[in-house]
Structure formats: structure tokens, C-alpha cells
């Protein structure tokens, strides 16, 4: 069981070869961080059985009231809830906090769990408050 950056050792057809009008940026972003590998920009978790789970973009950061927070770390906490199959966290402008509002979009494992949206939202806010910080708790949860 290990987590880290998802890097690829061999090229494949259709793989990006440059960034339009900025080849230097392409090299610095995708080839320099891990010499000999193509850095995808994604985080990954590999189980002891050899299965891979993408954990999200490593460079996707939300600034909540001056606190820089990665979306992947919030998604990881939310995904530990028994009713959640997967989640997505995004930021959008907030008149007081800057980029503070952080909605969480969820797919549930089973709709027969009986969680209503209000209860699930409260449980997830509490979970994120305990595992990360109170400022990281989402203001909005959308169950799909």
C-alpha cells in the first residue's frame, strides 16, 4: 500500500508531446519533476494486490480564507464515509472567503442506506472538520 505521483515510463500513441507555443513549460511540467518518466499530474494509490486508484490532481488547490487545500485530500476523507462510492470537490468564488465555497459532489454506494441529504451533509462536514480542519468543511453537498 503506497501513494504518490502517477508517472509513466513509456510513451503511448496520442500522448502529449508539447504545449502549444511553450515547449519549455511542457518539459518543466511533465518531464523534469521525475527524470525518465512522464508526470501525469495525478496522485495515485496502489494496493498491496497491485490495484491502482487515482486520488486526484496534485496541482488542484483551493484557497479557503487564506488556507491552501488540495481537493484530493478532501475527497480522500469524504470517500472514507461508509455511504460514499466516489466524490469530487471543486472551488468557486465566495464573496467573503475568496475561493472559499467548496461543494462536494457524491455518488453513493447504495441508495437504500437511508441517509437523507441533511444527515449525510452533517456527517461529512463533521468528518472533514475532524480529519482536516473546520474551515475545510463544505458548505454544499450534492448527492447524485
From TrEMBL:
Domain AMP-binding enzyme C-terminal: 73-143
A biological-process GO annotation: acetyl-CoA biosynthetic process
One GO cellular component, as annotated: mitochondrion
GO MF annotation: an example: acetate-CoA ligase activity
Pfam families: AMP-binding_C
Name this protein carries in UniProt: ACS2L synthetase
Gene for this chain: Acss1_1
Amino acid at each position: 500500500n503506497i501513494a504518490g505521483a502517477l508517472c509513466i515510463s513509456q510513451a503511448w500513441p496520442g500522448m502529449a508531446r508539447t504545449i502549444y507555443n511553450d515547449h519549455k513549460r511542457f518539459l518543466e511540467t511533465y518531464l523534469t519533476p521525475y527524470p525518465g518518466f512522464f508526470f501525469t499530474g495525478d496522485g495515485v494509490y496502489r494496493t498491496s494486490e497491485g490495484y491502482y486508484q487515482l486520488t486526484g490532481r496534485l496541482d488542484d488547490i483551493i484557497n479557503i480564507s487564506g488556507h491552501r487545500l488540495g481537493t484530493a485530500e478532501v475527497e480522500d476523507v469524504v470517500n472514507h464515509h461508509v455511504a460514499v462510492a466516489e466524490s469530487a470537490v471543486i472551488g468557486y468564488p465566495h464573496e467573503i472567503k475568496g475561493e472559499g465555497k467548496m461543494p462536494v459532489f457524491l455518488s453513493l454506494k447504495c441508495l437504500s442506506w437511508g441517509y437523507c441529504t441533511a444527515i449525510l451533509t452533517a456527517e461529512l462536514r463533521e468528518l472533514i472538520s475532524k480529519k482536516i480542519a473546520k474551515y475545510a468543511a463544505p458548505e454544499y453537498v450534492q448527492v447524485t
